[in-house]
């Protein structure tokens, strides 16, 4: 049927545009720096973790997920965990700097995977942690160390200017960007599956915001915002809008403008969850940036500033 074949061809073209257009290699280099630095800051500053303390927890409380358990996951001794933590920090810093980029990214990802399983093996699971692991694993397959790296500097010193290489395909950035998007979409589908579309008009969100006000993680500002939301905001409408936003995740595939709008909407969504519920979903925010062409935006901003300066110079010359 010609209509079906035409639709199939259009779908293939759209798929190729989404995953296999080229991107500036500096985008991948920036992604490398931001992702591994984010993991270091997240576990070292925002949610500081002493991984060696897990060696003292009785095995009675150990609840290792199925796949790591079948792979033989074990909690190491205090000395072992201290060594793993130190190696992870060193390899992550090397990945940020782009020194032995591929090897350092692989080592940092492997060690980070172990530490993520460790921190999520005692009853409390954060869904954002595995997303960081998947993102690092995907980035390991990309040429993220071709520019803005110690390796690139050493290559230039050894053999002079590097030959012009083809710009890398954008698929690693797109795959990582889809990780939080598909998670949001799955959350919306699960809500509809368990409660129907009536979830959006129920008082579930109001109860969640009310219960979050008793969280020890809630700051004074967040408590005041939660009280204001419960008292003044139409939380049922907000719940319906959040459900609609989760279910509309596939719109990121439509085109650049829809993708930009959805990134802004999801960033606001994450900020609202943190402010009202003290639920930091910064892992999701960190992965959303993979959907942004930072180098392209910088070039557009530079061009706009240049045009503005020229206009000012022309006006000044006309009035003089």
Structure description:
The chain is an all-alpha fold and 320 residues long. 70% of the residues lie in helices and 0% in strands. Helix 6 (128-140) runs antiparallel to helix 8, helix 6 runs parallel beside helix 13 (282-288) and helix 10 packs across helix 12. The termini are far apart.
Strand content: under 5%
Tally of individual domains: 2
Give the radius of gyration. Answer: 23 Å
Structural class: mainly alpha
* Major sheet attributes: none
**What level of helicity do the residues show?**
55-70%
Ends apart, CA distance between termini: 69 Å
Overall morphology: globular
Give the uncertain stretches in residue-range form: none
According to DSSP, the number of beta strands is 0
Note the quaternary state here.
single chain
Averaged pLDDT: 85
User: What is the N-to-C order of secondary-structure elements (H for helix, E for strand)?
Assistant: HHHHHHHHHHHHHH
Report the total helices: 14
Give me a quick take on this structure.
This protein has 320 residues and is an all-alpha fold. The chain is 70% helix and 0% strand.
Describe the structure using short key phrases.
mainly alpha; 70% helix; 320 residues; 2 domains
Describe the secondary-structure layout.
Blueprint: H1 2-20, H2 25-46, H3 66-70, H4 78-97, H5 101-119, H6 128-140, H7 150-159, H8 171-195, H9 204-212, H10 220-232, H11 235-247, H12 256-277, H13 282-288, H14 294-319
Helix pairs in contact: 2-4, 2-6, 4-5, 5-6, 6-8, 6-13, 8-11, 8-13, 9-10, 10-12, 12-13
């Amino acid at each position: 049927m010609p209509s079906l074949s035409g639709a199939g061809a259009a779908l293939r073209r759209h798929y190729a545009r989404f995953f296999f257009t080229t991107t500036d290699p500096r985008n991948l280099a920036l992604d490398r720096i931001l992702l591994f630095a984010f993991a270091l800051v997240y576990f070292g500053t925002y949610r500081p973790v002493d991984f060696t303390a897990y060696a003292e927890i009785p095995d009675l409380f150990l609840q290792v997920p199925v796949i790591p358990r079948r792979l033989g996951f074990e909690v190491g001794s205090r000395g072992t965990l201290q060594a793993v933590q130190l190696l992870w920090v060193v390899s992550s810093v090397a990945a940020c700097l782009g020194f032995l980029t591929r090897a350092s990214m692989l080592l940092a990802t492997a060690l980070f995977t172990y530490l993520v399983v460790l921190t999520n093996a005692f009853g409390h699971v954060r869904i954002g942690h595995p997303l960081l692991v998947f993102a690092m694993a995907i980035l390991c397959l990309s040429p993220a160390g071709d520019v803005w790296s110690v390796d690139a500097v050493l290559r230039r010193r050894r053999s002079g200017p590097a030959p012009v290489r083809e710009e890398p395909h954008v698929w690693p950035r797109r795959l990582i960007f889809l990780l939080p998007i598909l998670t949001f979409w799955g959350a919306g589908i699960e809500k509809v599956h368990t409660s129907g579309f009536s979830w959006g008009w129920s008082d579930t969100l109001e109860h969640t915001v009310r219960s979050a006000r008793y969280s020890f993680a809630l700051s004074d500002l967040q408590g005041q915002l939660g009280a204001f939301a419960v008292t003044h905001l139409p939380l049922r409408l907000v719940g319906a809008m959040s459900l609609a936003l989760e279910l509309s995740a596939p719109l990121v595939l439509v085109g650049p403008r829809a993708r930009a709008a959805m990134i802004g909407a999801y960033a606001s969504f994450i900020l609202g969850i943190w402010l009202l519920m003290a639920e930091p979903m910064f892992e999701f925010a960190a992965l959303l940036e993979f959907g942004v062409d930072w180098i392209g935006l910088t070039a557009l901003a530079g061009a706009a500033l240049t045009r503005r300066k020229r206009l000012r110079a022309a006006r000044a010359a006309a009035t003089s």
